[in-house]
Amino acid sequence: MDAAPVKIVAIDGPAAAGKGTLARRLAAELGLPYLDTGLLYRAVGRRVLDAGADPADPTAATAAAQGLTAADLDRPDLRTPETAAASSVVAAIPAVRAALLDFQRRFGAAGGAVLDGRDIGSVIFPDAPVKLFVTASPAARARRRWLELTAGGTAVDLATVEQDMAARDARDASRDAAPMRPAADAVVIDTTELDAESVFALALRTVRDRLG
Ligand code: C5P
């Protein structure tokens, strides 16, 4: 008899599409732990910047990924635009991705988990029973991120946020190592015209269908 599939809910998609909000709510609803995998790449990018190194330097970025500690993930400066840009540069380096792979798999392997990122359904858990790809128009996503940043006290204009996000999305989608793209069996949810409540209801229906 086959063992029951591990309850992995893989949520991928571009920046500020609503993945994090959705993932947290689904995790609470399902009683599963939640991992924001973007934080791992942000923490690596931050460590490289703090060392005064170039995020595109594979040696510096790989050392930062291999030396990552839990405390690095608690830093208050992981959400800044500078860290976001560095995170997507280090994320294109295959050895950085390799250094973070086991941690992500172990996090979900035992009792299941909700994970969000760019490659959860395509690379980290290709056999996940639930795969969602959450997206929205670039304008809607830039506006959401701009509202978050300004509410948090970061003075930045909307056009800059939109440009930075477009550059990051382009890097994430065009890299050779685990590019951002929906897995073939992912359900795509476009949140441009939806509020968080509707996104949650839609996603929960898919989760219940797939997990039984
Ligand atoms: O999700 P978040 O915007 O915090 O991710 C920051 C960056 O980390 C992304 O732009 C992407 O380059 C990288 N990332 C990734 N794979 C993941 C999660 C994040 O490459 N699973």
Describe, in plain words, how this protein is organized in 3D.
The chain is of the alpha/beta class. The protein has a single domain, classed as 3-Layer(aba) Sandwich (Rossmann fold), CATH 3.40.50. The chain is built from 9 helices and 5 strands; from the N terminus they run βαβααααβαβααβα. A 5-stranded parallel sheet has the order 2-3-1-4-5, sandwiched between helices. Helix 2 crosses helix 4. The longest helix has 17 residues, at 158-174. The chain is globular, with a radius of gyration of 17 Å. The mean pLDDT is 94. Bound molecules: cytidine-5'-monophosphate. Cytidine-5'-monophosphate binds at residues 15, 37-38, 41-42, 84, 87-88, 91, 117-120, 168, 172.
Q: So how many helices? A: 9
CATH architecture: 3-Layer(aba) Sandwich
Main beta sheet: strand number and arrangement? 5 strands, parallel
Write down the domain tally: 1
Spell out the helices and strands N to C: EHEHHHHEHEHHEH
CATH class: Alpha Beta
What name does CATH use for the topology?
A: Rossmann fold
The radius of gyration is 17 Å
Oligomeric assembly: single chain
Beta-strand fraction estimate: 5-15%
Poorly predicted spans: none
Within the largest sheet, what's the order of strands? 2-3-1-4-5
List each distinct ligand once.
cytidine-5'-monophosphate
Q: Using DSSP, what is the number of strands?
A: 5
Could you tell me the mean pLDDT? 94
In CATH terms, the superfamily is P-loop containing nucleotide triphosphate hydrolases
Feature tags:
single chain; 212 residues; alpha/beta; Rossmann fold; 5-stranded parallel sheet; 5 strands; globular; binds cytidine-5'-monophosphate
